[in-house]
Design brief:
The structure holds 2 protein chains of 2 kinds.
Chain A: E1 3-6, H1 16-39, H2 43-46, E2 52-55, E3 72-77, E4 88-90, E5 113-116, H3 118-125, H4 134-141, E6 145-153, H5 163-176, H6 182-197, H7 203-225, E7 236-243, E8 248-256, H8 263-283, E9 286-294, E10 298-301, H9 303-308, H10 317-331, E11 338-345, H11 353-368, E12 371-377, H12 382-386, H13 394-405, E13 409-414, H14 417-428
Parallel strand pairs in A: 8-9, 8-11, 11-12, 12-13
Antiparallel strand pairs in A: 2-5, 6-7, 9-10
Helix pairs in contact in A: 6-7, 8-14, 10-11, 11-13
Chain B: H1 4-9, H2 19-36, E1 44-49, H3 51-59, H4 70-84, E2 93-96, E3 101-106, H5 111-131, H6 133-138, H7 144-162, H8 164-176, H9 193-209, H10 227-240, H11 248-255, H12 261-282, H13 284-304, H14 310-323, H15 339-355, H16 359-364, H17 374-384, H18 387-394, H19 397-403, E4 406-411, E5 416-421, H20 428-438, H21 441-444, E6 447-453, E7 461-467, H22 475-489, E8 493-499, E9 505-510
Parallel strand pairs in B: 1-3, 7-8
Antiparallel strand pairs in B: 2-3, 4-5, 6-7, 8-9
Helix pairs in contact in B: 2-5, 2-13, 3-4, 5-13, 5-14, 7-8, 7-12, 8-12, 8-22, 11-12, 13-14, 13-15, 15-17, 18-20
InterPro entries (chain A): UPF0229 (IPR006698)
Protein name (chain A): UPF0229 protein NXT3_CH01463
Organism (chain A): Rhizobium fredii
């Protein structure tokens, strides 16, 4: 006897709990993997268009497994066409030489991978990162409003009367309240006129005339009581002031490409800016990025030149700040733009120029900038010496004075790729209270 | 044109199904299965489920009741991913070795598919579960569902009491050792959920009360330097612990000094489940072959009786053909030897040998060739073999030729693989033996045994991997697994790879050298 049971109405998603446990676990793993990736120096890859896949190591389930590339094995395979006993087949180069003949013993689960879209990667990448003070600034500076139609209102100024809507209301009201129409009254009036014109009116006609006059009077009274356009019919166009999205920000990337910036230093700076670039692309709908590189003279360049050009020379840092100032004056009025700046340098500067940089910041730039981050790239051996002290290059010492005065100024040192992400988080992490200007 | 009389003989028409047609078809299938094929089955319980529920079901290793663990979630996400991208169809059926035998029918199946699934699972698999000696000896179909219920509740209770993380950690480690958690040679005691619960309570009390010699930390009196005496001590110690032990999980459950009673119970649960599935892993070819052969035979019989339309039969044959498709080794779709294809072909071959043997068959299978009694021969094979012995006994030269099987020998040091044998007179024996061996789990799974532990000393647990044919362990997963062993054992664990034939030590690794991650 079969016993049929209909389970379709049973709860689905019996494995929901399992899945949640898994995703929780996977998320930790993914975050870790992404941090690893940043450390291992593949920041640029994160922004690549293709998906990022990573083996799920933290969610692997290890067991004792025979290694594919050891020992002697024998496989029985189907579909021989041409081989005779004693033939030799070259092993495949990849996959540990098992000639793809894992033959039913292979475990597909080992290849289990997460495929994360770029979006997902970036989400993990920028989790709880935020440009400082952004929200506050938006509230304060969202002064531009655009009036936008937003339906109708019963009150308003005469200029905004919406005739169509008003007339429609009045028509509806007139129909509902049976306001006598003009044709109806004209017909009665014509009848009256005809009867009055009659030379000798019979009593019947007289009586009829009286009725008609009465009716006409009644209609006229009614017409007066029910106006053609009543104040209740009037509708006004309603406008709502809508704040214009003020998510326009400009990021100045200042980089020292002087001779003292070696391959390593440039690389570190590059990575820092790549991260920054990614970060800004994420945060803003509209973001301008200005790349300024400097040696002993500074110039605005495009992204490619910024990162990949080989030009080099002496070092005058202040030229970059002046160039930045020039660009701000020309194109980015501080009233309309949120200005951020990040400067990467090894701190080497021509003597006397560091003070000039500091005063440029003090007097001009810090007032314009929402946030200014200075990243000094130092030698790994110097980390221990300089890591915690105020000693260091002239630029560093000069900037310390700025740091003390302006809360929206941050400075820090990095020595190796692994430092970048923590430093980045430190610089751009949610900060308790940065008092702007 | 089908006449009216013939039409009324049909079990169903069209692709829609309802419970009435299901039931009518079931009865017809049952008649063929029992009377014609002589199958012997557990009572059937057929459950209709939706596709989501099917995904749910086979992500929790096919059990209707299962404790919660993230790895099942992982499997779900994985399967779901493949399914949604169209890489893999859902299984049409799922069947559970229990009494009554539970078969899941998917709502989305057409009636023809429901009939096929009923014949395949509710009779083919069911018969195999009930009659195969491995299942009879090693699993207890009537107790498994209530045991799983107990396991699920128990683990939930543990999670409430000790926290999900703690339970998860134990389960992770236990799962890693699942393959080392079965008795291969002696039969485990039967389960009973009622007894189980009682036992659990008793055990907790017992553990508290009993003094165990294993816990003694005082040195023994005889500190002799006599090597013989030391030798004797060691062998006594091993004897007391019943070493060497192949069941690592069992050993840890009984002997580990750091495990709490509830942790031991969880190890036990995992071990019981591993044991329950062990016969299934040993009989894949036979089990699927049996079910496929049964559905093929039943469906053809019903078609011959005029009870299935040609359209339905075509649909059934199409899906049957998909199931038994065997791509060649150089085909990009080649996933290994398809157990459905091999099992089905062998069973059909047995039928052929019994009914219409060639002279070659008479040479190879004198007992059955021409006996005409293929039903009995198959029933006997299904009952008394596992994959390895089945292939060794029944794989015929005709079939080796049909599959064009060849034997490839692969030595790690060589640049080339050598074709050792092909489907010719000289190769049949070798191919058959090699193929059979490749289904022998005992031979293919790493043989890892607990060798020694000095409970009175440093409690260093020594495992030994008996290396056969020079096949070592994959290193990263080996180390990760050893970490799990250490987690359950609490003290240093080392693994030595010993060449099985020469006794030469090939490698040694210890948790002391493996970095914690």
């Amino acid at each position: 006897m079969p016993n049929f049971i209909d389970r379709r109405l049973n709860p689905k998603d019996k494995s929901l709990g399992n899945r949640q446990r898994f995703l929780k676990r996977a998320r930790e793993e993914l975050k870790r993997a992404i941090k690893e990736q940043v450390k291992s120096g593949k920041i640029a890859d994160v922004d690549a268009d293709h998906n990022v896949s990573m083996p799920a190591r933290g969610v692997s389930e290890p067991t004792f497994q025979p290694a594919g590339d050891t020992g002697e094995r024998k496989y029985v395979l189907p579909g021989n066409r041409e081989f005779a006993a004693g033939d030799r087949l070259p092993k495949r180069a990849s996959g540990g030489g098992a000639t793809g003949a894992g033959a039913g013993t292979g475990r597909s689960e080992d290849e289990f991978q997460f495929v994360l879209s770029r979006e997902e990667v970036l989400d993990l990448f920028f989790e709880d990162l935020e440009l400082p003070d952004m929200v506050k600034l938006n509230l304060k500076e969202s002064v531009a409003f655009k009036r936008r139609r937003a339906g109708f209102a019963a009150t308003g100024s005469p200029t905004n009367i919406n005739v169509g809507r008003t007339m429609r209301n009045s028509f509806g009201r007139r129909i509902a309240l049976h306001r006598p129409g003009r044709k109806e009254m004209e017909a009665i009036a014509a009848e009256i006129a005809r009867l009055e014109a009659e030379p000798k009116a019979s009593t019947k006609d007289q009586q009829r005339l009286g009725e008609l006059r009465e009716a006409l009077e009644k209609l006229e009274r009614r017409r007066r009581r029910i106006p053609y356009v009543d104040p209740v019919d009037i509708r006004f166009n309603r406008f709502e002031p809508q704040p214009l999205p003020n998510a326009s920000a400009v990021m100045f990337c200042l980089m020292d490409v002087s001779a003292s910036m070696g391959e390593r230093e440039k690389d570190l700076a590059k990575r820092f800016f790549v991260l920054l670039h990614l970060f800004l692309k994420r945060r803003y709908d509209r973001i301008d990025i200005v790349f300024i590189r400097h040696t002993d003279e500074a110039g605005e360049v495009d992204e490619n030149t910024f990162f990949y050009s080989k030009q080099s020379g002496g070092t005058i840092v202040s030229t970059a700040l002046e160039e930045m100032l020039r660009v701000i004056r020309e194109r980015y009025p501080a009233r309309e733009w949120n200005i951020y700046a990040a400067q990467a340098s090894d701190g080497e500067n021509i003597s006397g120029d560091s003070e000039r940089c500091a005063s440029l910041l003090h007097d001009e730039l810090m007032r314009l900038c929402q946030y200014y981050a200075y990243v000094e790239i130092i030698d790994e051996r110097e980390t221990e010496i300089f890591g915690t002290t105020d000693n260091g290059t002239s630029l560093w010492r000069a900037y310390r004075t700025v740091d003390g005065e302006w809360p929206n100024f941050q400075m820090t040192r990095i020595a190796k790729p692994a430092d970048i992400y923590p430093v980045f988080r430190k610089l751009f992490g949610k900060q308790p209270a940065v008092q702007a200007r | 044109m089908p006449k009216k009389g013939a039409a009324s003989n049909l079990l169903f028409q069209g692709s829609d199904w309802n419970f009435e047609t299901l039931s009518r078809t079931y009865d017809a299938i049952e008649t063929v299965a029992l009377d014609d094929l002589g199958l012997d089955v557990y009572p059937n319980q057929l459950e209709i489920i939706s596709s989501e529920q099917m995904l749910d079901a086979y992500s929790s290793v096919g059990m209707p009741l299962m404790y919660q663990h993230w790895s099942f979630g992982k499997r779900f996400v994985f399967e779901d991913h493949l399914y949604r991208r169209g890489r893999r169809g859902l299984a049409y059926e799922l069947v559970i070795n229990s009494n009554p035998c539970i078969t899941y029918l998917m709502e989305e199946n057409t009636m023809a598919m429901q009939a096929l699934v009923t014949a395949h699972a509710a009779f083919g698999h069911n018969h195999f579960f009930k009659n195969n000696y491995l299942f009879r000896q090693w699993t207890d179909a009537s107790a498994i569902l209530s045991y799983m219920e107990f396991a699920k509740k128990y683990i939930t209770k543990c999670e409430e009491r000790y926290g999900t993380t703690a339970v998860e950690a134990i389960l992770d480690s236990a799962h890693a050792l699942m393959d080392q958690g079965v008795f291969r040679y002696r039969r485990p005691p039967r389960l009973s959920s009622e007894k189980e619960r009682e036992r659990m309570r008793e055990r907790l009390e017992y553990e508290e009360q009993t003094y165990s010699d294993l816990w003694r930390t005082l040195p023994t009196t005889s500190e002799s330097s006599d090597p013989d005496a030391v030798e004797r001590d060691v062998s006594e110690r091993k004897k007391a612990l019943n070493l060497p032990d192949e069941n690592l999980l069992y050993f840890l459950e009984k002997t580990s000094l750091i495990l709490e009673p509830w942790q031991r119970e969880i190890l036990r649960i995992v071990r019981v489940i591993a044991q329950y599935f062990y016969p299934q892993r040993q009989t894949k070819v036979m089990n699927e072959g049996c079910a496929t052969f049964v559905h093929y035979t039943i469906m053809n019989t019903l078609f011959d009786q005029g009870r299935i339309t040609e359209g339905a039969m075509l649909e059934i044959l199409q899906s049957h053909t998909n199931v038994v498709f065997q791509p060649s080794f150089d085909d990009p779709r080649f996933p290994g030897i398809n157990p459905y294809a091999l099992g089905f072909a062998m069973m059909q071959d047995i039928e052929r040998i019994c009914v219409d043997p060639t002279s070659e068959d008479r040479d190879w299978f004198p007992d059955i060739a021409g006996s005409g009694n293929w039903r009995e021969t198959l029933l006997d094979a299904w009952a008394n073999h596992r994959d390895e012995s089945f292939i060794l006994q029944y794989l015929s030269p005709a079939l080796i030729r049909k599959f064009r099987l060849f034997l490839l020998s692969d030595e790690a040091d060589e640049k080339y693989c050598e074709v050792a044998s092909i489907h010719n007179e000289r190769g049949y024996e070798a191919i058959r033996a090699a193929l059979a061996r490749s289904y022998d789990i005992g031979a293919n799974q790493p043989d890892i045994q607990v060798m020694d532990v000095d409970l009175l000393g440093d409690r260093h647990l020594r495992l030994q991997h008996n290396v056969k044919n020079g096949i070592l362990l994959e290193e990263s997963s080996r180390d990760a697994t050893l970490r799990h062993v250490r987690h359950l054992w609490g003290y240093e664990v080392s693994l030595a790879g010993v060449e099985a034939e020469t006794g030469e030590t090939l490698y040694e690794c210890s948790t002391a050298d493996i970095e914690e991650d």
